[in-house]
Design brief:
single chain, two-stranded parallel ribbon, 34% helix
């Protein structure tokens, strides 16, 4: 699925050996309910990887949440679908607001998209495997928050939407969510320096500047994340 017809030629050029095995569907707005209905007929497995990165002035919640729900609702109308795999994030498991009590911070925070100075502020909090995730988001205050907070909120909200869908709709298919940390690796679509963004952009920035605002770059390779989705 692509948003613009012009994208198909570039993708076909990247995978010349598979051109006879790939078909494209153009859906300009994935948040529109029913937009995937026709595309999913006869499909057995769905991999949903579309979710926005932060861009000043843009709403991240709507495309992250409604885009995911749109895919799931269309899958309900396709008896052939056996499994839907959704790209979530490690941040989907971490509450936005501080965790009360305790004095130990566990690996989850160290692996997430959270700047080091915020980690220091949270060193008196406890994050453990059995903590309940608080999905509360102050939507009114969110637009004034830093970009990484808005991104965090979008991943939290979209994952909650998946959980709610599973509980209320009891779908005929399985839903799998994958929660990677920073994903690094070659970008096949990058043609110039201006195309460098996302986590690769953060890594490049860390290599090329004297100061690293994020303090850490623990992560996973894009090839491993791709294999996890397929498996």
């Amino acid at each position: 699925v692509v948003r613009r017809e012009a994208q198909t030629a570039k993708l076909r050029a990247l995978f010349p050996s598979y051109t006879d095995k790939i078909t494209f569907v153009v859906i300009p707005d994935i948040t529109v309910s029913g937009s995937f209905d026709a595309a999913l007929q006869g499909v057995e497995y769905v991999i949903h990887v579309a979710s926005p990165l932060f861009s000043a002035g843009e709403d991240l919640l709507k495309p992250a949440v409604q885009g995911t729900v749109s895919v799931l609702k269309s899958a309900l109308k396709a008896p052939s679908v056996k499994r839907v795999v959704v790209t979530a994030s490690a941040l989907s498991l971490v509450s936005l607001k501080p965790i009360a009590d305790g004095s130990v911070i566990r690996g989850m925070y160290l692996l997430c998209f959270i700047p080091l100075h915020l980690l220091r502020d949270r060193m008196d909090q406890r994050e453990a495997e059995d903590n309940e995730t608080d999905f509360t988001i102050n939507k009114e205050a969110l637009p004034s928050q830093p970009g990484f907070v808005q991104y965090h909120a979008s991943k939290l909200a979209s994952y909650k939407a998946v959980l709610d869908f599973q509980e209320t709709q009891n779908p005929h298919f399985e839903i799998i969510t994958i929660h990677p940390v920073h994903v690094f690796g070659r970008s096949l679509v990058q043609e110039s320096a201006s195309d460098l963004g996302g986590t690769n952009g953060l890594l490049f920035q860390a290599l090329m500047t004297e100061t690293n605002a994020f303090g850490h770059y623990l992560g996973v390779h894009v090839n491993d994340v791709a294999v996890a989705h397929v498996r």
